[in-house]
Specification:
The chain is an all-alpha fold and about 450 residues long. It is built from 19 helices and no strands.
Length: about 450
């Protein structure tokens, strides 16, 4: 392909892509397929267990709430983790599409990521000044997420090349389901360590969790480093970011199905803006106990365990777009329950314990929502990405979603200015709009 000619790039429309099978350009030898599959599952298990120990929605927000009461700062936890992870991937795509062996890049970056996690754990364990630890944690947390993001696109490329299209939904479902099983144990650990009546006090309790995350996630990376991959027979030329951006804009303009997909996923991310404040609201406004964080984590991860394999089967039989719609419906009901609780709690004199228990079904729905997006989102993105343009599709999509995630950090500002209820209403509207986009996505896939 001539990198200097924009006309040489004709984005494939979604209806031109065989969603049942897309032949990889360098399919790994059959003897390694199962080994790669299960190495990827083990990687997902270790990563999920580690991330439970430093879950941004519950653990990181609880940690930051000890240092500051600012809703704006508390609202940064999820955007810093997920948004910073996604941002560098479009830039990486300009370079990665010219590399025939993606695992070589992934392995090099894995050691940088391990070092970054080690620095984060050391910060939580050894910095003691409240002001210094708040600033240091936010900065290093963001930088760690950026470094993780550099490895995100190579990971997706390797999965696309080594996991057959018909098994990708199953692959991500196994990662999430098995990871959810181990995360249940991790959530019990979180409850014990964060229990105010327990032996571990601030900040040592969070230091233990950060260290556990560092150890588990690092082992997970080393496991994935054992993946077997053959080199691509064809690669795209390395291009400038400006040229790559012009190509990406053409994709959005020419491909209706891709546009519906990106819109729906963006709205679902916006719809998650209030989730980190659910437990904080009950604790600060209704007197709930922080020990319930471990319960919510357990419920959330148990839900993932139960529904992920179910979603994997739906993916195999009905396609990934239906799972995205189910995720949107779960999120809509989740937000409605929380809004009703915030409206009636004081007039009906709902006590702290009852309010805390009402959040349990909320986190069941949250787990179903997250699971649905996790199983279907990446699988659907790989399905609609033509092999030759995969780095561009995946890199641009993730970076665009990263910008959306960073913007959701304004959720704390909305809450601070207009109140918790207005923030929850925003999530209800976003979920509703996402479902409308989901209808358009399903229609485009049928045609």
């Amino acid at each position: 392909m001539n990198a200097d000619s924009e006309e040489a790039v004709v984005p494939a429309k979604i209806q031109d892509v065989d969603l049942n099978y897309i032949k990889p350009e360098a399919l790994i030898e059959t003897t390694y397929l199962e080994k790669n599959f299960w190495l990827g599952v083990v990687n997902g298990i270790l990563n999920a267990a580690g991330e439970t120990l430093m879950d941004p929605t519950l653990v990181v927000v609880a940690y930051l709430s000890v240092l500051t009461q600012s809703p704006l700062i508390l609202g940064l936890a999820v955007p810093l983790r997920d948004g910073a992870w996604a941002l560098p991937q479009f830039w990486v795509s300009c370079y990665l599409q010219n590399i025939p062996n993606k695992m070589s890049i992934y392995r090099k970056l894995s050691y940088v990521r391990i070092a970054a996690w080690g620095i984060l754990a050391a910060t939580v364990n050894f910095v003691r000044s409240p002001t210094k630890i708040l600033i240091a944690f936010l900065v290093i947390f963001a930088l760690t997420s950026l470094v993780n993001g550099l490895g995100g696109l190579p990971f997706m490329e390797v999965v696309a090349k080594t996991i057959p299209p018909g098994r990708r939904g199953e692959f991500f479902a196994w990662r999430l389901a098995a990871g959810g099983l181990c995360s249940i144990g991790a959530s019990i650990v979180v409850r014990i360590i964060l229990d105010p009546a327990g032996p571990f006090k601030f900040p040592s309790n969070y230091g233990i969790l950060a260290t556990g995350y560092f150890v588990l996630a690092s082992i997970g990376l080393l496991v994935f480093n054992r993946f077997k991959e053959t080199s691509d027979s064809e690669v795209q030329p390395r291009v400038s970011v400006t040229y790559q951006f012009r190509r990406a804009i053409k994709l959005l303009g020419n491909n209706n199905g891709y546009r519906y997909f990106v819109s729906m996923w963006s709205l679902l991310l916006i719809a998650g803006v209030a989730t980190p404040f659910f437990a904080v609201y009950v604790q600060q406004q209704l007197g709930g106990s922080k020990a319930m964080i471990g319960v919510y984590l357990g419920v959330y991860t148990a839900t993932n365990l139960l529904v992920n394999l179910f979603f994997g089967r739906i993916s195999k039989k009905f396609g990934n777009s239906k799972i995205m719609v189910i995720a949107g419906i779960c999120g809509l009901f989740m937000s409605i329950i929380v809004l009703l609780l915030s409206i009636v709690a004081v007039p009906m004199k709902i006590n702290a314990q009852a309010a805390s228990y009402i959040l349990i079904p909320v986190f069941v729905l949250s787990g179903m929502r997250t699971s649905g997006i996790g199983v279907s989102g990446n699988s659907l993105m790989l399905d609609i990405s033509p092999t030759a343009e995969r780095s561009l599709y995946v890199g641009f999509t993730n970076s665009l979603l990263g910008i959306v995630l960073i913007a959701t950090g304004l959720g704390g500002l909305i809450m601070n200015t207009f109140g918790f209820q207005v923030l929850v209403v925003v999530t209800i509207i976003a979920h509703s709009l996402a479902l409308i986009q989901g209808t358009g996505l399903q229609k485009s896939l049928r045609h």
